[in-house]
């Protein structure tokens, strides 16, 4: 009986193995045989193989295509020039630390309509220039970056959806890249730039991350017309962090419901102009930063509009503050009453978190008026605007998200108070 079972098993294996062997490498063999400029269409189906493309051809999926591999090497490796990859789903199930779904080097490649599921890295660009990646999606497991650049310049990333990765798009020593109209959620940093200059971040949405965007030791970055939303799930969360960076232009963005809207640390000569900063716990915060400009912004519904620590030489003028007292005597659109953003409540609760229970109570407001914060923590606007620079939907802003933040703070403080009593 056992002999018959073995015979049947051998017959089954002999029937299936040739088919598997024939299927393996069929796409790669077509790539190997293709002439430069050829278009290879992949028939609908699932393919368990890895591909290496080194010449200028187009690889295009016809119907639903899945390339899958759990090996240590990338599912697709692209080098040389002018390779195009279109309409393909790539799944990398390998769990090695540097495992990557698609690895790209060389120049002028194009990836379009790509869907990636990965345990580690989605797409890595290594000394890759002039690459375009658009209309694609990357889903990870927070163990690697969605798109990772190393010494890669003049690339374009457009209309990407990136979810649940370590950093959505990470740039290191990579200059002149354009990151446009992407949606990045539930990651550590939505966008993360290190030692990278003259990059443009435009019309992106970075939401529910720990930090929406971080700029570190980067110069001449343009951050324009983006949305930084609900980056508030950590005590270190912020919409935009500018750290040791210079000559950054931050214009026309929305910072809504973050823990800190904009955090500027040890950074100089940056310009924060005409942004909507609304319903954050702290609107803008400076730490050891000087010679920055904050002008023509709209501050609405923040618990603390602004704070400065060891940052006395910043220009903060001509902003709209909903908490400011406003009188315009000469009709120039600016209030004659100087506005000072006093972080008294923030300083108090940092020292004693339980005081969050008294948020917005009459007694605390009276104390804030009597006991002013140190001068080096005040941000003073000598000419606050009478009207907003950007439209705000007041019915949406008024207080829902602010109340949510406040309730969380109160519950946390109440827990500390109760448990503290029990321990005693």
Automatic annotation (TrEMBL):
Span of domain Periplasmic copper-binding protein NosD beta helix: 138-328
Pathway(s) this gene product operates in, as recorded in its UniProt entry: Protein modification; protein ubiquitination
UniProt keyword annotations, A-Z: Membrane, Repeat, Signal, Transmembrane, Transmembrane helix, Ubl conjugation pathway
Keyword Transmembrane: yes
Organism superkingdom: Bacteria
UniProt signal peptide: 1-23
Record's keyword annotation contains NAD: no
Transmembrane regions: 400-419
PANTHER family: F-BOX ONLY PROTEIN, F-BOX ONLY PROTEIN 10
Protein name listed in UniProt: Nitrous oxidase accessory protein
Gene source species: Peribacillus huizhouensis
């Amino acid at each position: 009986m056992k002999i018959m079972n073995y015979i049947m098993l051998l017959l089954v294996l002999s029937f299936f193995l040739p088919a598997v062997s024939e299927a393996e490498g069929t796409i790669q063999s077509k790539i190997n045989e293709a002439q430069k400029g050829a278009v290879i269409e992949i028939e609908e189906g699932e393919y368990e193989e890895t591909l290496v493309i080194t010449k200028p051809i187009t690889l295009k999926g016809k119907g639903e295509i899945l390339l899958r591999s759990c090996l240590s090497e990338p599912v697709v490796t692209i080098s040389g020039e002018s390779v195009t990859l279109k309409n393909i789903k790539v799944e990398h199930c390998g769990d090695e630390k540097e495992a990557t779904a698609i690895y790209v080097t060389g120049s002028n490649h194009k990836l379009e309509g790509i869907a990636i599921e990965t345990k580690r890295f989605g797409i890595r660009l290594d000394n890759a220039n002039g690459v375009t990646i658009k209309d694609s999606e990357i889903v990870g497991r927070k163990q690697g970056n969605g798109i990772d650049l190393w010494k890669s310049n003049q690339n374009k990333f457009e209309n990407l959806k990136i979810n649940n990765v370590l950093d959505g798009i990470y740039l290191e020593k990579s200059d002149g890249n354009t990151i446009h109209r992407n949606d990045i959620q539930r990651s550590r940093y939505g966008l993360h730039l290190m030692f990278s200059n003259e990059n443009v971040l435009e019309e992106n949405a970075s939401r529910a991350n720990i930090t929406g965007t971080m700029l570190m030791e980067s110069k001449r970055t343009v951050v324009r017309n983006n949305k930084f939303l609900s980056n508030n799930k950590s005590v270190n969360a912020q919409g935009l962090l500018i750290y040791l960076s210079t000559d950054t232009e931050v214009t026309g963005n929305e910072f809504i419901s973050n823990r800190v809207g904009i955090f500027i640390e040890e950074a100089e000569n940056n310009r924060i102009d005409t942004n909507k900063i609304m319903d954050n716990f702290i609107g803008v915060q400076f730490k050891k930063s000087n010679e920055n400009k904050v002008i023509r912004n709209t501050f609405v519904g923040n618990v603390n509009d602004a704070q400065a620590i060891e940052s006395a030489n910043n220009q903060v003028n001509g902003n709209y503050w909903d908490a400011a007292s406003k009188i315009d005597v000469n009709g120039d659109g600016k209030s004659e009453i100087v506005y000072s953003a006093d972080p008294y409540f923030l300083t108090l609760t940092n020292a004693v978190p339980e005081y969050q229970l008294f948020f917005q109570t009459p007694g605390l407001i009276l104390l804030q008026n009597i006991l002013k914060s140190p001068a080096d923590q005040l941000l003073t606007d000598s000419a606050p605007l009478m009207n907003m620079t950007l439209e705000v939907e007041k019915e949406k802003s008024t207080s829902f998200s602010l109340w949510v933040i406040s309730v969380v703070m109160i519950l946390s403080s109440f827990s500390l108070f109760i448990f503290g009593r029990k321990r005693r």
